[in-house]
Every structure is written in C-alpha cells, then in structure tokens.
Write a structure and sequence with these properties.
The protein is of the alpha/beta class. It contains six helices and nine strands. The longest helix has 21 residues. The protein starts with a helix and ends in a 5-residue tail after the last strand. Bound molecules: S-adenosylmethionine.
C-alpha cells in the first residue's frame, strides 16, 4: 500500500475516532449504499462506519456462544467494540480468549482504554501490531478478518495453517459494492482453500470454513 493511501486511511479512522470520543457511541441507521444483495441497508443499525453493523455484532456474540471457541483472533480492533462483543460471548461460555490486533498506536491506545473499562477485559489480549507480523500460538477456532480491505486475502492465507478445520473464518466488508474482500474470498474458494457463504448484510460478511482437513 502506498504511503499516501495509508495516511489518508489513517486520517479517516482517526477522524471517526475523534467523533466517537466527542459524542460517544450513537446508534443510527446504516448508511452504506444499497446493493443487489442488500437493497435496504437502512433497516440495519450502526454506531459508525468503521465498527461492524449492530446486527453483525449480535451475530458475532451469538456465534461465539454457538461454537464455543477456545481461541479467537481478530484483525483490526478500531475502537474495540467488536472485540468486546466477541469477548461477551466468551464470558457467557466461561472459557476461551480473544487476541485482537490494531497497528495504529493512537487507535490502539483508545481501544485499550475502552476495553480496560469494560466487563470483559480479562478475556481480551490486545496487541499494538500489524496482523501481518503478529505471532499466534495454538489453533484458531474463530478468525475475524476486519483490518484494511486489501490485506484481508493475505491475512487469511497467513493464518490458514493455524485455523481449525472445524472452525469458522469471517471476513467483514464483503459486499458486492466494496468488492475487494468478496473477490478475495471467492478467489480463495476457487483455489480450493475455503468454502464460502456470502451473508447479504449492508457491508457484507463472508462466513467460511477451511477445506483442507475437513472430515
Ligand atoms: C474496520 S476497522 C475495525 C472495526 C472493528 N473490528 C469493529 O467492528 O469494531 C479496521 C481497523 O483495522 C486497523 N488496521 C488496518 N490494517 C491493519 C493491520 N494490517 N493490522 C492491524 N490493524 C490494522 C485500522 O487501523 C482500523 O482501526
């Protein structure tokens, strides 16, 4: 990624973060554009355009209580909201842990503060690191790829050997409008690496499973 693009992206994330710090979390109708697969995005809710849609947050928490992962890895913490919802699922299960990484030091510091004040801090390990450098010990039961769109494909490739074949891979922002992640997931499927479901949410969510080793 070019430096100019990286800077522009950081600025957008930091701008949204400043707004959150100023006004708090405010639920509003989702305003990402309609797509053929999701023609009424306004029926969904969101806190801001970086944090996953409210309904997706609910899905994340329920997925955790449904499959009871021992280890969740999330790329892209932003303000820590999805991390906290995933951790709420772990707390309800009474077991497991989540490792989440955020490479922007300012955004990381803000998320750390939010997580420390939450009721689920003990379930979360937050790392100020790039997803492409982070080292994870053990088998990943739930992998949530939610960092920068162009690196999601590389992330899945990088962590795939460590992902439990019975586990779940989620890739956010996979709508037909946002394209990049959708195309990456379909490419990984064509290569026989994963099997993919495309959930028709406003920003799109890939629910996938590793193909190799499935029994
Ligand atoms: C879409 S936001 C994450 C939203 C969050 N998961 C939620 O739903 O509450 C993406 C975040 O990923 C961070 N990011 C982008 N590329 C990254 C990378 N390679 N490693 C770690 N963090 C990254 C950005 O700074 C940004 O805060």
């Amino acid at each position: 990624m070019g430096l100019r693009r990286l800077f522009k992206k950081e600025k957008q994330e930091r701008r949204i973060l400043r707004q959150i710090v100023r006004t708090g979390d405010n639920l509003q109708p989702e305003y990402h554009r309609a797509t053929p697969e999701c023609p009424h995005p306004e029926r969904w809710s969101m806190f801001d355009s970086m944090t996953a849609e409210m309904e997706v947050l609910e899905f994340l928490r329920t997925l955790v209580t449904t499959i009871k992962p021992e280890l969740i890895v999330e790329t892209g913490t932003f303000s820590g909201v999805s991390t906290i919802w995933l951790a709420e699922g772990l707390k309800a299960n009474g077991r497991g842990r989540i490792v989440s990484c955020e490479f922007d030091p300012l955004i990381y510091a803000n998320a750390k503060e939010r997580i420390e004040k939450s009721a689920v801090a003990e379930w979360i390990e937050l790392r100020n690191q790039s997803s492409m450098d982070m080292k994870i010990e053990g088998t990943i039961d739930l992998f949530f790829s939610d960092s920068d769109l162009p690196i999601r494909e590389q992330e899945v490739r990088r962590y795939l050997p460590q992902i439990n074949p019975f586990g779940i891979i989620l890739m956010h922002d996979a709508s037909s409008h946002l394209k990049t992640v959708r195309e990456a997931a379909l490419k990984l499927e064509r290569e026989g690496l994963i099997s993919v479901l495309l959930l028709p949410t406003p920003r799109g969510l890939v629910v996938a499973q590793k193909r190799e080793g499935r029994k």
